[in-house]
Amino acid sequence: MKRLTALVLAVMLCAPAAFAQKEYGLKFSSLMNDNLTLENAIRLGLENSSEFLTAKQDIIIAEQKVSEAKFRYLPQFSLQGTATLYDLDYPMVLPDSVANRFLPGNGLYGEKDQFYGVGITATQYLYTGGRISSTLKMARANLKQVQSRYEIVKNQVVLNIKKAFTELLYAQHNAKLTQEVWDLAQKWYAKPSGDVWTQIRIRALLADLKSSRNQAESELKKAQLAMLVNLNKELNARITIKGDFSPVKTDWDLPHMSLWAMEFRPELKSAIYALEADNIAIDLALSKRYPDIILNASYEKLGEESLDDVNKQVSLAVRLPIPYNLSEQIAEKKAGQQKSALRRAAIEDKIRVQVAESFENMLFWQKEVLDRQAAYDDLNKLLAQASKNRPKTGTAPLEGLQDYLKSAQGYLQAVRSNHTAKAELEWAIGQDLQ
Fold it and tell me: Given this model, what pLDDT does residue 301 score?
């Protein structure tokens, strides 16, 4: 227990230094399409995401519902005026929509067949068995759930943009690499020499390198299209990005990240707020066993020709609802509460698994990318030496270029996987890592 407490305190002390808090969702001009950084791409993507903007509107709606619930504590006032023409053989009471006024029928006021009235009414609930306070608590719990769903949507949009951004960076570097290798091969073998079989082999190897260049260009166009889709831009728009494509790493361990995920992941917060809402729903159901105590007051001026008569009253009423299905409602709410508790436990387990898998993936790629980088650097040095030796004959230089290209692409793919693993780990935690 002491070790757990110490670990929690360490996490709380280290957390501010571990995360780079970014105010994603701030306004960013959608007309800026040149040299987008990752942060600006995320802001632009959030600004253009219909799902994200819908989640923001849901928050506004939930906030208004909280305000409406607060108004239930205040007296309810109504101001009403009526003008009635009647022809009655028997007295009647006007409906509630016109203030429940009593009309005595023909003859009481002579031959008059009109009646006028104006008045103000105030109704105040003095006691409701906790129904009003529980309604306010329910509205606040709903607001917390909506805010959590907003964070869930935002995190998913951010993750998608990070992946698309990394994919586009990789495609740009890969296209540049294959073009450089193809240019070098053309320079070396402007005029292939050797016997027929050697020339056949040389031309086949050149065709393979050209095909790799063409494939890289196609992948670049696809990555640009995917980026436009994630930014919710027109598909014929032109964008350019810039960013660091070097290896990244994290020095934090799995226990810290698991604890951070329990604190930051909005899915877990949403489940907690759902459980809170179920607890409030049980209180609401139980509150039906208690009466309402209502204070009502009204002031009216009325008459058949002028408003000379005055009615004033103050009433205190006790109203006890008698629901027949109260026990069934309570049983239903308790079952919903148990369901939410099970769902919360399942989400906790799922988050721990996601963090563990993302962490192991990150550990693998942050080590693997360094190994491939070392091999790539050695090959670059050897290629620089080989480029000085002329002329190039036989197929060995081209075969070497193919091997170089394969190794270089493997390094670029490792960097892409490394950045993607970091993005997925940040999503699993619920915050950006420095």
Answer: 87
